[in-house]
């Protein structure tokens, strides 16, 4: 009964995310006027020079601002042309995204009630949880700074993952085998799924950074008008880099915790804390990639664009772990529940 | 600028190194360059790479060059990438330690490829020399980098913050303000605003030309966290290595009512590390009193519990239970419940009617939901001299069709238990001196009892005889070999005993790593400079700037907070001149001193 209700909620959430993705896409391709001069003006000018100009300018102009902050460090990821174009589509995107998230939350809660345990014990439920966490992270960041340019990509991924969850991964709610009946299921798996959600947002931001950076550094523009508009709508690569870093830093701590809590649980359940099980290996690989990401950011010649590739690679490794290892590898973590 | 590469996962702005230069170099460009993020050194790993490779290098120069390379961030990054890539084959190919059967299958499926993969240790990735080489190099690089940094940080901790640089405008956050307070009160207020910071105060000039500069620094724990994290990883590796050297691990099957004594010979399988010491085998015995299993209606397991008695060396008994997620800690070892099944008590009388065999025989489940289990009975001591082997299945909820041609179990619970046995006679091969698997029958010197079947078309074929026995029944064996009795149906548990004295260390280092990592990423390391002086009209004016290590979204807010006591000056030409005048005065004084 509640299981069926949960299914309805998730399906409606999927629909809401779909509408949200389309609305955000309309917003993204419409909102920013194409300004070819912007990209060109940055070419050949060092970041330091641009920052100094910006800082000097604001010193002179905005007498009301108490603290002057360099443009590069402002942490602002806001719209380059605020208020220039109507953002009604983005508004629709936001409200449907919010609705989708609320519906998904309801779906997850009812699922937990139907199964009589925490709703993250098989791949269908992991997927729901990860999408939910990614959505909540997006909404939380949006409260502080305008990141609606991420909306279409995150809503799009939510649609994709929820669709796969419903079609490929769905299982009727049931209780779990003895090895999983443990408070570590609550801790380890919830942190792991949250880490997946965070890494997703981080990787999308890094991917957008790479796109923006590519066109800025080459001084070229996409051929299609909508492509130009999307690129113009994105904030500077430096802002995207900072946002991605803040998300990925939290994600890395969560991955570390996932590994450690997993090791503790494995020691309790399987008699060894580390056994190079296929799932353990891929989580380790993911962790090392994120460690490399953090080191790359601090290595001269690797910060910025190259570091962003690590963020994207980390996400791809999560996808491999999730969609390939879970299903096909001979792993103790084989809890997809799919024959 | 930096002499050594840095494990600096967070930062683009280097505080530690900037400080020495800001203090030491009087040249304005260098002082500002060292502090400002735009011009600041990102990683400081350039040192190794930019060493000129001049001619006539001896081994000492090469050694130093190699060490610098190894401890540079760039090489650490490379090794991290290599480590990630090197770990992948182990997740794709079956590994001997985890899945020996999978490796054997791979050899059968890919007879030409598998030996080549094996030559590169691709079936033992995590114990292979090349994998060890990567992580050992990584850890050497880590130690070579983090230990000097730890000493450097210890030095920084004993010193006051660096002197304030001349110009504040190139800092990521800066501000100017005026105050109605006299200069000395303003200085006191500024110090109060910087509570929690480590401070350095310097005063140049006198009277109306006096300029006071305050440097404040906080968040030293960020670097401490970074160092703790990396050292904890080293500790983790060392404890795991030590644990694998001294550990022992054994598997044993215990049937209800039986007692297991913790000694090497009592184990069904036993392996140890190279430095294993027999004394680490705790002196205790375990008796399995009962085993409880709960299954869901669909056959899925819901709960397993083994009730045991732990018997100490002096004979004292205490009850304990072992569950799937709750190992029993006893005698320095951990006891895990890894498997369970049925162990029917079977008696065999030989052709002469003499009791030839009476024991419980563990039947190993081949399915987790039906508990169709396989087992072997080896009857060696018959009075007739013909040895008997029984090879068959135990079915907890038996469904047997066509005299045993088809058999299955409909549930894991013993609703309608039955044994279905194929009968062999001859020589079991036990006296050949070759170790035998107790769960397999070597039939090379035995013949199987068969029966003839009329296929209905006039001809006959043969099929193995399958003897069906129910609890309490005694059934004749074919070919007059004797009888078999199914006496009772106790259960067995498969236990894993593991001794690893480093478990606590491993956990401690892992938790230290998490705490250190969190600190190194999220504790802000900030430096705030405040300079106060008087403008030509005798009013107290000031400038302030803030600098952070790594990403710090709260930096501007922090600067606002620490200067909150002062009223922000309207940015008129007068105040700009005033602060410039103050700065210039300071500069002039510093240069003259």
UniProtKB/TrEMBL annotation, chain A:
One of its GO terms (biological process) is cytochrome complex assembly. Keywords: Cytochrome c-type biogenesis, Membrane, Transmembrane, Transmembrane helix. Residues 120-332 form the Cytochrome c assembly protein domain. The chain crosses the membrane at residues 6-28, 96-114, 120-141, 153-171, 183-208, 243-266, 278-295, 307-325. The keyword RNA-binding does not apply. It is found in: Membrane. GO terms for molecular function: heme binding. Its main location: membrane. GO terms for cellular component: plasma membrane. It is a multi-pass membrane protein. InterPro entries: Cyt_c_assembly, Cyt_c_biogenesis_CcsA, Cyt_c_biogenesis_CcsA/CcmC. The keyword Ribosomal protein does not apply. This is Cytochrome c-type biogenesis protein CcsB.
């Amino acid at each position: 009964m509640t299981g069926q209700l949960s299914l309805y909620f998730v399906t409606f959430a999927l629909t809401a995310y779909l509408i949200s993705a389309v609305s955000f896409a309309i917003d993204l391709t419409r909102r920013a006027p194409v300004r070819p001069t912007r990209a060109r003006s940055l070419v050949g000018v060092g970041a330091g020079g641009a920052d100094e100009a910006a800082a000097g300018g604001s010193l002179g102009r905005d007498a009301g601002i108490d603290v002057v902050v360099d443009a590069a460090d402002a942490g602002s990821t806001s719209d380059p042309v605020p208020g220039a174009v109507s953002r009604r589509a983005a508004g629709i995107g936001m409200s449907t995204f919010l609705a989708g998230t609320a519906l998904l939350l309801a779906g997850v809660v009812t699922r937990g009630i139907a199964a009589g345990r925490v709703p993250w014990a098989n791949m269908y439920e992991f997927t729901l949880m990860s999408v939910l966490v990614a959505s909540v992270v997006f909404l939380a960041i949006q409260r502080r700074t305008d990141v609606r340019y991420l909306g279409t990509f995150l809503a799009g991924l939510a649609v994709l993952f929820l669709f796969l969850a419903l079609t490929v991964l769905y299982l009727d709610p049931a209780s779990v085998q003895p090895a999983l009946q443990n408070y570590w299921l609550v801790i380890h798996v919830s942190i792991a799924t949250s880490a997946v959600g965070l890494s997703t947002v981080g990787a999308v931001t890094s991917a957008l950074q790479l796109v923006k950076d590519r066109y800025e550094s080459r001084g070229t523009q996409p051929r299609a008008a909508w492509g130009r508009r999307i690129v113009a709508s994105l904030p500077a690569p430096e802002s995207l880099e900072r946002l991605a870093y803040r998300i990925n830093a939290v994600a890395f701590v969560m991955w570390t915790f996932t590994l450690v809590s997993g090791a503790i649980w494995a020691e309790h359940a399987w008699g060894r804390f580390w056994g190079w099980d296929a799932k353990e290996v891929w989580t380790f690989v993911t962790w090392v990639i994120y460690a490399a990401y953090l080191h790359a950011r601090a290595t001269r010649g690797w910060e910025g664009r190259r570091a962003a590739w690590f963020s994207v690679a980390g996400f791809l490794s999560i996808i491999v772990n999730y969609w390939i290892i879970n299903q096909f590898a001979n792993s103790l973590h084989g809890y997809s529940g799919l024959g | 600028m930096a002499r050594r590469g840095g494990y600096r996962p967070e930062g683009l702005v280097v505080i530690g190194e900037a400080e020495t230069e800001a203090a030491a170099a009087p040249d304005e460009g260098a002082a500002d360059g060292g502090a400002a993020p735009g011009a600041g050194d990102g990683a400081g790993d350039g040192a190794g790479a930019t060493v000129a490779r001049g001619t006539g290098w001896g081994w000492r120069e090469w050694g130093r060059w190699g060490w610098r390379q190894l401890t540079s961030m760039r090489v650490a990054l490379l090794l991290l990438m290599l480590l990630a890539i090197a770990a992948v084959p182990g997740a794709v190919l079956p590994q001997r330690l985890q899945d020996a059967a999978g490796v054997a299958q791979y050899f059968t499926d890919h007879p030409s490829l598998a030996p080549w993969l094996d030559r590169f240790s691709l079936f033992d990735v995590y114990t292979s020399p090349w994998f060890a080489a990567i992580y050992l190099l990584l850890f050497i690089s880590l130690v070579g980098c983090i230990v000097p940094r730890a000493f450097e940080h210890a030095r920084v901790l004993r010193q006051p913050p660096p002197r304030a640089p001349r110009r504040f405008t190139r800092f990521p956050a800066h501000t100017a303000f005026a105050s109605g307070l006299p200069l000395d009160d303003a200085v006191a207020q500024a110090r109060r605003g910087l509570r929690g910071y480590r401070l350095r105060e310097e005063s140049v000039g006198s009277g109306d030309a006096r300029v006071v500069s305050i440097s404040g620094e906080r968040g030293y724990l960020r670097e401490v966290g970074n160092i703790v994290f990396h050292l904890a990883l080293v500790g983790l590796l060392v404890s795991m290595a030590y644990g694998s050297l001294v550990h022992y691990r054994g598997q044993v099957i215990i049937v209800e009512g039986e007692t297991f004594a913790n000694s090497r010979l009592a184990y069904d399988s036993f392996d140890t590390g190279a430095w294993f010491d027999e004394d680490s085998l705790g002196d205790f015995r375990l008796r399995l009193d009962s085993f409880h299993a709960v299954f869901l209606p669909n056959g899925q397991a819901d709960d397993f519990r083994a009730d045991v008695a732990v018997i100490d060396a002096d004979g004292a008994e205490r009850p304990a239970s072992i569950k799937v997620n709750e190992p029993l800690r006893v005698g320095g070892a951990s006891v895990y419940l890894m498997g369970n099944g049925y162990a029917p008590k079977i008696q065999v009388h030989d052709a002469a009617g003499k009791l030839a065999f009476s024991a419980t025989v563990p039947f190993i489940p081949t399915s987790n939901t039906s508990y169709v289990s396989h087992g072997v009975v080896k009857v060696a001591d018959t009075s007739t001299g013909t040895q008997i082997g029984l090879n068959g299945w135990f079915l907890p909820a038996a469904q047997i069709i066509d005299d045993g041609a088809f058999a299955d179990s409909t549930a894991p619970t013993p609703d309608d238990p039955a044994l279905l046995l194929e009968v062999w006679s001859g020589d079991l091969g036990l006296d050949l001196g070759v170790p035998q698997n107790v769960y397999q029958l070597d039939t090379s010197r035995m013949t199987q009892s068969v029966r003839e079947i009329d296929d209905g078309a006039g001809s006959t074929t043969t099929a193995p005889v399958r003897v069906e026995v129910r609890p309490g029944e005694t059934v004749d064996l074919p070919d007059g070999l004797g009888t078999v009795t199914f006496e009772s149906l106790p259960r067995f548990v498969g236990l894993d005993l593991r001794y690893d004295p480093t478990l606590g260390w491993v956990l401690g280092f892992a938790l230290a790593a998490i705490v250190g990592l969190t600190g190194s990423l999220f504790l802000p390391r900030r430096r705030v400079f405040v300079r106060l002086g008087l403008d030509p009209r005798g009013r107290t004016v000031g400038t302030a700037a803030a600098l952070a290590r790594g990403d710090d979204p709260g930096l501007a807010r922090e600067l606002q907070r620490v200067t909150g006591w002062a009223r922000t000056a309207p940015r008129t030409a007068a105040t700009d001149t005033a602060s410039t005048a103050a700065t210039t005065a300071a500069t002039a004084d510093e240069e003259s001193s």
